[in-house]
Write a structure and sequence with these properties.
The chain contains 2 helices and 6 strands, in the order H-E-E-E-E-E-H-E. This is PHP family Zn ribbon phosphoesterase.
Length: 96
């Protein structure tokens, strides 16, 4: 679709989106338990695993400072924030 394309109401695409701004990328503040560094991570740098119980739900990332694999528990609020921010999610299934 080109910018000169019109919608059913006769408005051009360019006119319809004229006032919109692009959204800033989402970043999350995190820290490493190994090296104690604090930093910001893009959504693509995090992974969220949702398990059958709250004890099996966690998020993980690789520390950009020391390279350590970090895994932290994710409560309900953290799950909301990460999924809303575009973090890729893996749903873990129980084997029962």
């Amino acid at each position: 679709m080109s910018e000169s394309a019109t919608s059913g109401a006769g408005m051009t695409v360019a006119a319809a989106f004229a006032g919109m701004r692009s959204a800033a990328p989402v970043t999350f503040k995190a820290s490493c338990p190994d090296c104690r560094e604090r930093f910001e991570l893009a959504a693509a740098a995090l992974r969220l695993a949702i398990g059958a119980t709250s004890r099996a739900t966690f998020y993980s990332f690789t520390c950009p400072e020391c390279g350590a694999a970090v895994r932290k528990p994710a409560g309900e609020r953290i799950v909301e924030l990460l999924t809303g921010g575009g973090v890729r999610t893996l749903r873990l299934h129980s084997t029962l």
